[in-house]
Amino acid sequence: MTEKSAGEVEPGREPPGSTVATAEPEFDVDALVENLLAGEHRALARAITYIEDRTPGYRQLVGELHEHTGDASVVGITGSPGTGKSTLVDKLALEYRDRGETVGVIAVDPASPFTGGAVLGDRIRMGSTVGDMDVFVRSMSARGALGGLAAATADAVRALDAFGKDRIIIETVGAGQNEIDVVRTADTVAVLVQPGAGDDVQMLKAGILEIADCFVVNKADLDGANRTVQELTEMLQLERDVDPIVRTGHHGADEVEDSQSDTEESHDESADADPEEWRTPVVETVATHGEGVDAVIEAFDDHRTYLADSGALEDRARSRYAEEIRTLLREDLGTLLEAEIEDRGGIEGLAADVHRRETNPYAVADELLDPIRDCVADNRD
Questions:
Q1: Number of helices and strands in the chain (H, E)
Q2: Could you state, in order of their start, the residue ranges of all structural domains in the chain?
Q3: Residues sharing a CB contact under 8 Å with residue 102, sequence separation 6 or more, in sequence order
Q4: DSSP state for residue 111 in the 8-state scheme
């Protein structure tokens, strides 16, 4: 297992899209790509470090790796703190290895308030595959904001994919609107909920529901698990007007399983008749004991099959790339504009002019953008 330890924020760390991104590479890009594609774990670790730090040359690195991607199955795991995400990821990695598949894990962790590095406490719960070189675990610090981290996560996934990992798992720091951009890097997204999480279920209605391809009720051996499953199924029925599946994979869930048997049977028949419709399953697990992990993997595989058969897999990939291009353009254009603002004396001076009614915000924006518009027009074919 390869792990990045918490460390100090390196001097000169720049945000994505900064001018440092196009500076002269600080490392031998071609040699690093060659070593990574040859299966050297040290090269993989270095590549992800350069990607996360946005070291000059990282764009060329990611660009050369891109043509070697597209084979890995990527899963996103999100959920509120305490739902057992790290434990489930650990058991998933172990099960995948038992099946002979290689695994890469990117775990987004909270940031240390002192160093800015990842707080690695959750990695203690991911020790089942320690020493297994075919399981690569990397923690990435949230650093207080997940917007830029989404781009770094997507690029790190490319590195793992190009390296040849069969399964890639992305684990987020929590469940919220900020995490949506991170997990959208995945083809399949699982949202974890724990028993008695009435407020969490209400929160899911506020915006995370639409990204869930699978719900996992973890710690299903605790009181309240059946009620949480019922709340989720009712929510899915109301929101999507379909009958969801409940899959049990732990001991003591026979009552729920029997009560949902008719629903599951009708779903299977409907799924065969209408491959264009995905019905979000609700899977019960007790991750600490590995119970239900098989059912989770089955749900992931079913969703992957659905995506491939319906054409949605390619549609999602194109949508991700389109949004990535837009994001990069916004970041780079913002960097250019920031430099132009500084050349004009800084934003405070422009704001003061607006405050004195000597100009207005729209006129300032037009004046700053005019050189870029002229440059684009001059270079348009």
A1: 14, 8
A2: 69-312, 319-379
A3: 96, 134, 135, 164, 165, 166, 167
A4: B
Give residue 111's Cα distance to chain centre.
17
Residue 118 is predicted with a pLDDT of 47
Query: In Å, what is the CA distance from 139 to each residue of 104, 292, 337?
Result: 11, 25, 33
Beta bridge partners of 284: 217, 248
What does CATH list as the number for 69-312? Answer: 3.40.50.300
The secondary structure of 321-369, three-state, reads HHHHHHHHHHHHHHHHHHHHHHHCCCHHHHHHHHHCCCCCHHHHHHHHH
Residue 173, SS3? Answer: coil
> What is the secondary structure of 174-220 as a DSSP string?
SSSHHHHHHHTTSSEEEEEE-TT-HHHHHHIIIIIGGG-SEEEE-ST
Tell me if 284 sits within 8 A of 292, measured CB to CB: yes
Average pLDDT over residues 138-148: 64
Whether pTM exceeds 0.70? yes
Nearest to 284 by CA among 88, 3, 61: 88
> Helix, strand, or coil here: 109?
strand
Mean per-residue pLDDT for 347-372?
A: 95
